[in-house]
Amino acid sequence: MSYEFSAIDNFDARHGYKRCTVSGVGVSFPDRLGASVDFWRNRTGIVVVRFSSQEYQFSFQLTHPSGGILLDSDLEEFANYIHHSLLRWFDEGVDDAPTL
Fold this sequence. Notes:
By secondary structure, the protein is an alpha+beta fold. It has one domain (4-92). 18% of the residues lie in helices and 42% in strands. Strands 1-5-4-3-2 form a five-stranded antiparallel β-sheet, with helices on one face. It is globular. It starts with a strand and ends in an 8-residue tail after the last helix.
């Protein structure tokens, strides 16, 4: 399955955001810093994600390819999908926005 991503400004998740039932994914390697992607829902129910590593952060909102809101039942599959994007971003260098 593919997903529609739109870059958004970084956000403060303490204000109006709720963790998704699958809260995110992470990677770490010996002798290297790690990286993570955290999942939240905004006030309208849209899933937003934040890629972070070191001091770098890039945020996106996403929708189902049909244009609808991603359902909780789709989050496990989405987590598997985004894990591959996280590994690629970590490998290519976290100072640039991930390619999604």
